[in-house]
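2024-03-11 09:14:02 INFO receiving multi-entity request
2024-03-11 09:14:02 INFO entity count = two
2024-03-11 09:14:03 INFO echoing inputs for audit
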Amino acid sequence: MVTYIIRRLLLVPVLLVGVTILIFGMLQFLSPIERSALYIRDVPKNDRAVEGVIKQYGLDKPLYVQYWKWLVGVTNEKTGERRGGILFGDFGYSRIASQPVADLIKNRFPNTLDLTLWAVAPVILVGIWLGVQAAVHQNGIIDQAARMFSIVGTSFPTFVFGLLVLMIFYANLHWFPPGRLSDWANRVVLTNTFHHYTQLLTFDALLNGRFDIFLDALRHMFLPILTLSYISWATFLRVTRSSMLETLRMEYITTARAKGLPEKDVIYKHAQPNAMIPAITLAGFSVIGLLGGVVITETVFTYPGIGQAAAQAAAQLDVVTVLGFALFNGFILICSNLVVDVLYAFVDPRVRLS
Amino acid sequence: MAEMNPTGDNTLLRETTALREIGWFERFLGPENYRIITGLLKTPASIFGFILIGLFVFISLAAPIIIPPTTPNDPYKIPRDGFSPNPKPMGTEWKRNAPPLPFWYKPIMKSDQWVHIMGTSTGQYDIFYGIIWGTRTAFRTGFIVVITTFLIGTIIGAISSYYGGAVDNVIMRVVDVFLTLPFILAALILAAVITPRFGKSLFPAIIALIAFGWMTYARLIRGDILSVKQRDYVLAAQVIGVKDSRILMRHIIPNAIFPTLVYASLGIGDVVLSFAALSFLGIGTEIGYADWGQVLSFARNWITSLNQYWYIIVWPGLTLVLFVMGWNLVGDALRDVLDPRMRGKS
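2024-03-11 09:21:47 INFO inference complete, emitting structure
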């Protein structure tokens, strides 16, 4: 167990260095002067100033020097002021948002987190439930329907599904609008009397006692959650179904049946807990995926999370911003993957013994 | 003589009494690969999948007959009927830039004037044209990306698994790094970074999909090679002193490559989906290029009036769904066939 965790921990610095090198490599596609957005807000107009900036931040130095400066930033010798340095959380300046990339992430991330928290239950629980039902009634009507559903589900591109539900539930029925809040609610949220305790809009609304704003926020999140659920159910269904089928063929299940246990107990007490292990891993990864910002879903529903910001920056070729998001995403993913893997070792003895 | 054979249903008996004829095709592919191919052609779902794929192959080959290009030098440019931002409904008369009439048009449509069969989108781009010629774009990008990722993945996976040890370890950590970022985000970033270098075209998206798409193949082929490496004929070749590169190319890869190859050939659906997603997000081709993601992205400006302009998402959306579904149906059958628990059963 301890060796497994240590081995897994040793992988973390490797991945972190790897991802930073990968992103630094992509930065090299930019000209030195474009890269200066890593350190300064406005790129100077005249040539002399441009040269000064390139020299000051070492943008013409060998790659390893630049990589090091990119990691720890450039300190002004006279004032002791540090600029840049991704290790200190300074990802440079965003052209499209005209603010530091770190601030942009700080503004957007709570929205993504909010969406994740509300999407987790429908995405995971319903998907697993469907898979168990399909396995228990193998080759029955439920199984066939589930299988059909899962194929249709995996074939539906997120953006096509998103546009279709927008057409039905917004354009036709006016039930669930896209965006984050209605105008009236937004005005309330921006006033001084509305306190941002957690930065998560739905929870803040409840803490402020504004139930109407809470409902309005949920109404806007309904379609993104529906889309996310629909596309992940297919995967959960498939994984849970096959692991459940495998478990149901085990000898201890036969034993349980042979000694006369009711079928309900056999399935839900003996088989399901053991069949859940792959589904739990998958659940871990899908939460991580949601946290990283779901680029397409957020874009279709103009939901102001980090995925939408990344897509917007990419479409306008604001590379420094996009790479800032990639770094942030990489850090989140590496850390949470670690947590999932370690938890997995606690759940499944086979992992830690091998 | 049949009654003299032992009867009953167990594997050993079936294997010892196997008297079935082996055709040239099976001899050519080998029993395991033959099982994969026949398994793919067995279920109704996968046959339906093959029919869908065939339909799209037909559309892409017959594109110039279905709707001849208005500008033959640049057939991928969707002809525009004016510049008005508002989409026009299905069946509107095609006034400007109408393509030449194909032979099937008059008998079926009972008219010698082109209409917008599926309506027009923002900027009067004809949706029908975009869908038909977009099929070609889909296959082109799909083939380029799948073939390149397959080659890169195979080479890297082969080197990694054949040499093992430190080489394997380093390569697999590189694979881990490439798999860290979510695929679509990684591809989006790389495409955005290289777009200023290549200009708006198919290339940035294709390169991005290749750069972050080879890892699955590398892992797959690595696993298969690791098992083939254990076989006696490889050991025999090593003992008589055959060169590493020759053992790899002549003995190991040909025996290990087939499952990855089939898997890769079905990867086109996923590639086309990702490509459409990228161009939907505004990365990739210039506006007006016949590609499905592009046609769908026109709808983003009309979210509030999709009840009126439903045709600007339903037709291209349906096309993309059917295309991906065709590949998925076959892929689903493939998963069953390649499942190790099913090996050895016919």
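2024-03-11 09:21:48 INFO post-check: Chain A touches chain B through 52 residues (CB under 8 Å).
2024-03-11 09:21:48 INFO post-check: The mean pLDDT of chain A is 83.
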